[in-house]
Specification:
12 strands; alpha/beta; 14 helices; DNA polymerase, domain 1; binds guanosine-5'-diphosphate; Ubiquitin-like (UB roll)
Length: 363
C-alpha cells in the first residue's frame, strides 16, 4: 500500500488532521477493520463517488473502497537536518514515504502559539523546505564522494557524477530535486538516494472554519508557492474535520451548510494525495460487491489481476473490460455488451482509470 507522510511545523494542525483522517476511516471502513500498525500510521479509505453508481447498477450487497496510508511525522523543526531535536529520525521517516502532505497554518488564533511568533505560510514553507533541501544536499554530497572514484575508471561513474553535480547545483540554490529537469536515465541513477525534495508534495492549507468556503490571503500565498514548485494544494480545516467526527451523522450536513461548504476538505485532501501518488483505480462489480482497486499508472491487466489475487495474475487469460462511462451511459452490463462496449483485453492491455474489469483466468 502506498504511503503519504504528514509533515509541518509544530502547532499547525497535523495531529488534529491525522486524528480526523483516522476517525473517518474507522467510521467508513466497515468492511475493512481499521488497522493501526503504529500509533502514527493510519489506513484511510479513498472516497469515490463512482462506487455507489456501479453498486446501484450491479445491485451489489457491499461497497469496498480502496485505501491509502497516512503517517503522522511530527517533530520537524528548523535545524532538523543538522540533527536538531530528533531531526534525523524524522527525516529518515520522510525518506520512506511515497508522497508528502505538508500542513501549513493558514488560520489565526491567539490562543495557539505559533513557533515563529506569527502566521506566515511562506516562511513556514521555507523553513521546512530548507530542512528537506539540506538533508538532500548532504545525501548528494556523500554519494559524490564515492562516485568521484568511480568516475576515474568508468563511463557510468562519469555519468553519475554529472547527474549529481546537476542536483547539487540546484539544491545549493535552494531548489528542490523535483525542479531539476532529468531524463529517465538520469532519474534511474539517483533513484536509490531517496531524495526528499524529489517526492511529490501537496500543501494542505489549514484554514479556520470561517475561511473554508472563501479561502484567504494566506491560502493564495501557498497556491503561488506551490505553482512555482510544481506542487499541489488542498484547502482543509482540521478544526472543522475534528468537529465533524464528533457530530452525529445527521447533523453534519447542517453544520457544513452553515459554513457554506460541502465538506471540510479531508475528502479533497485524500483524493488529491491519491492522485499525487500516480495511482489509478479500477473496479470489479457484481451482485456480491462493488470494489475499487489501486494500481500504478501504466500497470497492465495481469498486474491488476494480481492486486486481487496472485493466482489471478499467474493464470491470467483475458479481462472483460468496460469503461466506467460506457457502463453508466448504457445502464447495465447487458446493454453495454449489446452495443459492443465490452472488450476482451489480453496480457498487454494497460488498464485505464475507471475501467470495470472481469478477469478470466486458469487456476
Ligand atoms: P501539530 O503540532 O501540528 O500536530 O498541531 P495540533 O494538531 O496538535 O494543533 C495544535 C493546536 O491548534 C491544537 O490546540 C488544535 O486544536 C489547534 N488547531 C488545529 N487546527 C486548527 C484550526 O484549523 N483552527 C484553530 N483555531 N485551531 C486549530
Amino acid at each position: 500500500m502506498l504511503r503519504a507522510g504528514i509533515v509541518g511545523l509544530p502547532n499547525v494542525g497535523k495531529s488534529t488532521l491525522f486524528n480526523a483522517l483516522v476517525a473517518n476511516a474507522k467510521a467508513e471502513a466497515a468492511n475493512f477493520p481499521f488497522c493501526t500498525i503504529e500509533p502514527n500510521v493510519g489506513v484511510v479509505t479513498v472516497p469515490d463517488e463512482r462506487l455507489q453508481v456501479l453498486s446501484d447498477i450491479a445491485t451489489s450487497k457491499e461497497i469496498v473502497p480502496t485505501r491509502v496510508e497516512f503517517v503522522d511525522i511530527a517533530g520537524l523543526v528548523a535545524g532538523a537536518s543538522q540533527g536538531e531535536g530528533l531531526g534525523n529520525k524524522f527525516l529518515a521517516n520522510i525518506r520512506e514515504v511515497d508522497a508528502i502532505a505538508h500542513v501549513v497554518r493558514c488560520f489565526d488564533d491567539d490562543d495557539i502559539i505559533h513557533v515563529s511568533g506569527s502566521v506566515d505560510p511562506a516562511r513556514d514553507i521555507e523553513v521546512i523546505n530548507l530542512e528537506l533541501t539540506l538533508s538532500d544536499l548532504g545525501q548528494v554530497e556523500r554519494r559524490m564522494e564515492r562516485a568521484r572514484k568511480a568516475a576515474r575508471s568508468s563511463k557510468e561513474g562519469q555519468f553519475e557524477m554529472t547527474v549529481l553535480e546537476k542536483l547539487r547545483e540546484a539544491l545549493d540554490a535552494g531548489k528542490s530535486a523535483r525542479q531539476v529537469d532529468l531524463s529517465p536515465e538520469e532519474v534511474q541513477v539517483i533513484q536509490g538516494l531517496g531524495l526528499l525534495t524529489q517526492k511529490p508534495i501537496i500543501y494542505a492549507a489549514n484554514v479556520s472554519e470561517e475561511d473554508l468556503a472563501s479561502g484567504n490571503a494566506w491560502v493564495e500565498e501557498v497556491r503561488k508557492i506551490a505553482a512555482e514548485e510544481q506542487a499541489q494544494v488542498a484547502v482543509v480545516s482540521a478544526q472543522v474535520e475534528s468537529e465533524l467526527v464528533e457530530l452525529p451523522e445527521e447533523e453534519r450536513g447542517d453544520y457544513l451548510e452553515s459554513l457554506g461548504v460541502e465538506e471540510g476538505g479531508l475528502r479533497t485532501l485524500i483524493r488529491a494525495t491519491y492522485e499525487l501518488l500516480g495511482l489509478r483505480t479500477f473496479f470489479t462489480s457484481g451482485p456480491q460487491e462493488t470494489r475499487a482497486w489501486t494500481i500504478r499508472a501504466g500497470d497492465k491487466a495481469p498486474q491488476a489481476a494480481g492486486e486481487i489475487h496472485t493466482d489471478f495474475e499467474r493464470g491470467f487469460i483475458r479481462a472483460e473490460t468496460v469503461a466506467y462511462d460506457d457502463l453508466v451511459s448504457t445502464g447495465s452490463m447487458g446493454a453495454a455488451k449489446e452495443k459492443g462496449l465490452i472488450r476482451s483485453e489480453g496480457k498487454e492491455y494497460v488498464v485505464k482509470e475507471g475501467d470495470v474489469l472481469l478477469f478470466r483466468f486458469n487456476v
